[in-house]
């Protein structure tokens, strides 16, 4: 995957994350004027593209579905740190940030990334084929975790408002981490074959790795380190521009939930690009592993993290969704179930998922 004509240290995929990390150090906890915000945005884009490259190097080395898991967990772990940091710094105005960001991640992954991947794969190869056993198991876990963590707080009565009591929050956090652990075990150990790409005839491809040109151990280790640097830079720079985003949202008269949407879009950019590139290569199952794995990691890691941090937060933890978002979540689960069952999808299914995402974005701006 790495260029054979240029030393690793001289490649842009090495320079971009390093320079972005240096910029992060120079701008950390400092007010940013508009010219610096533009510079940060440019380096943020470079770090995103570099993260995609290094994730693909790692995936090429270890094969599927491990490569998808590496990127999803790495991105989400740093996303969780960003959410907790913003909640700790933001006070009451960020009480719903975890809910807004997690729900945005669900909508972006289960409708945006999934829909785009299916649309690209189906347009290029007539139909997009995938393994319904693994995809269905992942989607069912997402639906369960989303209901336990984001739907139930709206209807519980132990505390006023869309908020869990301490006992309920502890249960939701425990259920999230246990179910995510079971998913990872299923993905990597018990039923790995359910998450491998399939041929148009339904035959499982035992290995998605082309042994020719396999990255060396040195290149793979370098990519692991540079992926970590890239993701820290992406999330750190996103945090740096978040005050500018918040001011822009307020100046435009938009709801505060838009901040969570923008953060989720920035953080999920590496998975989005990697998923589309996999779909172009007719690896739609890899795209779905990225999409659904990211959604699962977002819930399974964020809810336990904010639950553990809640005693030290100066704001209540609002997790319950409002009526509009409850309807969109129910629609996403219904449409996703019907998409997964046939084991193949046409451009129509991709378009339907993208229409649900578009509705979410429109209603986020104009509730």
UniProtKB/TrEMBL annotation:
It comes from the Bacteria. It is a multi-pass membrane protein. The keyword Transmembrane helix applies. Residues 36-188, 223-364 form the Sodium/calcium exchanger membrane region domain. InterPro entries: Alkaline_pH_Ca-Antiporter, NaCa_Exmemb. Pfam families: Na_Ca_ex (PF01699). This is Ca2+:H+ antiporter. It is found in: Membrane. It comes from Kitasatospora paracochleata. The chain crosses the membrane at residues 7-28, 34-54, 66-87, 102-123, 135-156, 168-189, 221-242, 248-269, 290-313, 319-341, 348-366. Keywords: Membrane, Transmembrane, Transmembrane helix.
């Amino acid at each position: 995957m790495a260029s054979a004509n240029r030393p690793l240290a001289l490649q842009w995929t090495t320079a971009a994350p390093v320079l972005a990390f240096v910029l992060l150090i120079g701008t950390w906890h400092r007010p940013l004027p508009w010219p610096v915000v533009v510079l940060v945005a440019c380096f943020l884009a470079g770090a995103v593209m570099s993260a995609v490259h290094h994730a693909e190097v790692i995936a090429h080395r270890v094969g599927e579905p491990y490569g998808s898991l590496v990127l999803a967990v790495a991105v989400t772990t740093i996303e969780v740190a960003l959410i907790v940091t913003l909640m700790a710094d933001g006070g009451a105005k960020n009480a719903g940030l975890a809910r807004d960001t997690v729900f945005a991640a669900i909508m972006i992954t289960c409708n945006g990334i999934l829909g785009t991947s299916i649309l690209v794969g189906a347009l290029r190869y007539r139909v997009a084929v995938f393994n319904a056993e693994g995809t269905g198991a992942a989607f069912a876990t997402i639906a369960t975790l989303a209901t336990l963590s984001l739907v139930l707080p709206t209807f519980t009565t132990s505390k006023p408002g869309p908020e869990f009591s301490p006992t309920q929050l502890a249960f939701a956090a425990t259920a999230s981490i246990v179910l995510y652990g079971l998913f990872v075990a299923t993905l990597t150990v018990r039923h790995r074959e359910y998450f491998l790409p399939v041929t148009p005839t339904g035959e499982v491809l035992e290995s998605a790795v082309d042994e020719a040109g396999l990255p060396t151990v040195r290149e793979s280790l370098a990519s692991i380190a540079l992926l970590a640097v890239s993701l820290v830079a992406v999330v750190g720079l996103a945090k740096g521009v978040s005050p500018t985003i918040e001011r822009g949202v307020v100046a435009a008269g938009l709801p505060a939930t838009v901040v969570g949407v923008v953060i989720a879009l920035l953080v999920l950019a590496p998975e989005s690009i990697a998923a589309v590139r996999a779909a172009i290569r007719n690896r739609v199952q890899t795209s779905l592993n990225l999409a659904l794995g990211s959604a699962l990691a977002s819930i399974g890691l964020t809810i336990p993290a904010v639950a553990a941090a809640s005693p030290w937060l100066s704001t209540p933890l609002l997790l319950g969704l409002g009526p509009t978002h409850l309807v969109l979540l129910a629609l996403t689960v219904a449409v996703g179930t019907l998409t997964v069952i046939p084991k193949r999808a046409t451009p129509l299914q991709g378009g339907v998922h993208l229409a649900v995402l578009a509705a979410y974005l429109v209603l986020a701006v104009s509730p």
